[in-house]
Amino acid sequence: MDTSYPREDSLPAPSHKRQPPAAPGSPAPRDHLLWSIFNTIYMNFCCLGFVALAFSVKARDRKVAGDVEAARQLSSKARCYNALATAGSVVLPLLLAALVVTGVIHLSKLAQESVGFFAYQFSGTDEEDK
């Protein structure tokens, strides 16, 4: 009788099996870690940069573990959140600047039109009263 521990027939089955390595011609998925770090530190619009960083780290972990398909899915999510964070951080300040510029232009035109209304000249002669 074999009393060694642990017995091979009683080992729990692994929750996920390692997939075989990718074919030599297919590129490894990118994890977009630097882009995520940049978005987290400099352009963290609605915390999307932090979410992208979390997916980038998970993608890198899956790539190191050999789970290429999960790494591709997580990498795709990281890229999507990075694109949203970058677009939000670039588009919103540009939109705000455009609103400020159009407001200034509108106010300057309004001021020029109202100059004639407020430019009442007082004269010392009574010729105008006659």
TrEMBL record:
* Cellular compartment(s): Membrane
- The signal peptide annotation in the UniProt record is none
The record's annotation in Pfam families points to:
CD225 (PF04505)
Give me the stretches of Basic and acidic residues compositional bias.
1-10
Region of interest (Disordered), ranges: 1-27
Q: Where are the transmembrane segments?
A: 33-55, 81-105
Please give the biological process terms from Gene Ontology that the record holds: bone mineralization; bone morphogenesis
Task: Say where the protein is mainly found.
Answer: membrane
> Which InterPro entries does this entry report, sorted A to Z?
CD225/Dispanin_fam, IFITM_antiviral_protein
User: Does the keyword Transmembrane helix feature in the UniProt annotation?
Assistant: yes
Q: Which GO terms describe its cellular component?
A: plasma membrane
Keywords annotated in UniProt = Membrane, Transmembrane, Transmembrane helix
Q: Which family does it belong to?
A: Belongs to the CD225/Dispanin family.
**PANTHER family, A to Z:** INTERFERON INDUCIBLE TRANSMEMBRANE PROTEIN (PTHR13999), INTERFERON-INDUCED TRANSMEMBRANE PROTEIN 5 (PTHR13999:SF10)
Which protein, by its recorded name, is this? Answer: IFM5 protein
The scientific name of the source species is: Psilopogon haemacephalus
